[in-house]
Amino acid sequence: MENMKNGLLQDFIPQLKNLIKSETVFGEPYQVGEVTLIPVNSVKIGFGFGNGQTTKDGEGGGGGGGVVLTPEAFLVIRDGQVSIHSLATGSIENLMDKVPEVLDRLLGLYEKATKKKAPPAESV
């Protein structure tokens, strides 16, 4: 029975190490024009194991777990300055109210960045 418990833990620990790393909390950075955005997440992990043994039927065991990844904020890097913009506003309605404003700003930054890179128009 002890071997079964050790085997379950030995299988689980490497998988847990893959989940718990800085890239899980700080997401992949992405560039929008002159601005770099880095998502910041909270991670909640739960797991359990169990086993049993009877004298006639042998032994059995199993385990399970789950992970919840929740976006909490964005690190915003612009002109060498870093700021954090929290998504925790107290209610989902407040968050939804901010979506159009954020999208407009991102679209404006994207349009500004692509206009700078456009080649000059040829004269006829």
The biggest sheet amounts to: 4 strands, antiparallel
Order of helices and strands: HHEEEEH
Distance between the termini: 85 Å
Any idea what the radius of gyration is?
24 Å
Query: Helical element count?
Result: 3
Which assembly state applies to the chains in this document?
single chain
Q: Give the neighbour order of strands across the main sheet.
A: 1-2-3-4
Low-confidence stretches: none
DSSP E strands, number: 4
Average pLDDT for all residues: 77
Strand proportion, as a percent range, falls in 35-45%
- What is the 3D form? elongated
Helix content: 25-40%
Structural class: alpha+beta
InterPro entries: Spore_YtfJ
Protein name: Sporulation protein
Organism: Candidatus Lambdaproteobacteria bacterium RIFOXYD2_FULL_56_26
